[in-house]
């Protein structure tokens, strides 16, 4: 799977590309990441400027349409793989596990990172990207949001995680739309807090039942919204 990242700050991704699970996935050629510096597409050869003030006034600067559109079109000309085009913006559809799973089936995802007040509207009108947000808060730019998207997607690509089943039980994954149950490792007791007996007894049916119950309780306490979704999609646990 290939990611193209269009950004004014390609260096923001340096540590992420070399210090994470992604690095192994890249070495094993499961994932390719191509960064594209928007400034190289500037129509202003003197200062490489790609932003300007909004017509009609108002604070901040906008990323101009021509460099952005031409950059994306050039990337697409150079790569035969069809791409999902995504603009990272707080105005977008909120990223969730379902969208991550869907993106993981695409051979290529092109991520456009905004800064300042975002892109000139004609970028959206001409390139018709999907608009994706990572949550109801405002970031200084789309780069961190793009890393979130990549991080959520790459771990779903077959072979990227060590154990093929290790993302199946995750909160929100296909196998589980509930929050995860609590987990414990050694020591069995720490500062008076004991690991629940059921987990130490080796009865796998009882352990599975305890975990299902703990998932449900935790979700009820923290995320009622997921519980109503869960009972709609999985009538087995609808009691
Ligand atoms: Cl995708 N971009 C920015 N700049 N802020 C955000 C966001 C994206 N998602 C939530 N806040």
UniProtKB/TrEMBL annotation:
Say yes or no: keyword Metal-binding present: no
- Where S-adenosyl-L-methionine binds, per the record, is at 114, 134-139
Keyword Oxidoreductase part of the UniProt annotation: no
Q: Which SUPFAM superfamilies does this one have?
A: alpha/beta knot
A Gene Ontology biological process noted in the UniProt record is:
tRNA N1-guanine methylation
| Keywords, alphabetical | Cytoplasm, Methyltransferase, S-adenosyl-L-methionine, Transferase, tRNA processing
Query: Quick one: a GO cellular component term?
Result: cytosol
Q: Where in the cell is it found?
A: Cytoplasm
Q: Which domain of life is it from?
A: Bacteria
InterPro entries, per database record = Alpha/beta_knot_MTases, tRNA_m1G_MeTrfase_C_sf, tRNA_m1G_MeTrfase_TrmD, tRNA_m1G_MTases_N, tRNA_MeTrfase_TRMD/TRM10
From which residue to which does the signal peptide run? none
Domain tRNA methyltransferase TRMD/TRM10-type, which positions?
Answer: 1-228
Please give one Gene Ontology molecular function term for this protein.
Answer: tRNA (guanine(37)-N1)-methyltransferase activity
Q: What is its EC number?
A: 2.1.1.228
Gene3D superfamilies under this entry?
3.40.1280.10, tRNA(m1g37)methyltransferase, domain 2
Q: Main role?
A: Specifically methylates guanosine-37 in various tRNAs.
Subunit structure and binding partners = Homodimer.
Please state which protein family the record places this protein in.
Belongs to the RNA methyltransferase TrmD family.
Q: Which NCBIfam families match?
A: PRK00026.1 (NF000648), trmD (TIGR00088)
The protein depicted here goes by the name tRNA (guanine-N(1)-)-methyltransferase
Organism, per UniProt?
A: Roseimaritima multifibrata
């Amino acid at each position: 799977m290939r990611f193209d990242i269009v950004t004014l700050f390609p260096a923001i991704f340096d540590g992420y590309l070399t210090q994470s699970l992604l690095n192994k996935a890249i070495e094993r050629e499961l994932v390719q990441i191509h960064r594209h510096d928007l400034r190289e597409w500037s129509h202003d050869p003197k200062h490489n400027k790609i932003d300007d003030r909004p017509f009609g006034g108002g604070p901040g600067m906008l990323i101009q349409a021509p460099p952005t559109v031409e950059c994306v079109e050039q990337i697409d000309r150079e790569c035969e793989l069809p791409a999902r085009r995504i603009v990272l913006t707080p105005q977008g559809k909120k990223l969730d596990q379902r969208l991550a799973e869907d993106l993981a089936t695409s051979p290529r995802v092109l991520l456009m990172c905004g800064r300042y007040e975002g892109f000139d509207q004609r970028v959206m009108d001409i390139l018709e990207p999907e608009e994706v947000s990572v949550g109801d808060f405002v970031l200084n730019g789309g780069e961190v949001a793009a890393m979130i998207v990549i991080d959520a997607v790459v771990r779903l690509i077959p072979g990227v995680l060590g154990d093929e089943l290790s993302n199946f039980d995750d909160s929100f994954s296909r196998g589980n739309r509930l929050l995860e149950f609590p987990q414990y490792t050694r020591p069995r007791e720490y500062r008076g807090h004991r690991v629940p007996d059921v987990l130490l007894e080796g009865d796998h049916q009882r352990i599975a039942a305890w975990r299902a119950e703990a998932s449900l309780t935790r979700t009820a306490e923290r995320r009622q919204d997921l519980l109503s979704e869960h009972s709609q999609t999985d009538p087995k646990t609808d009691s």
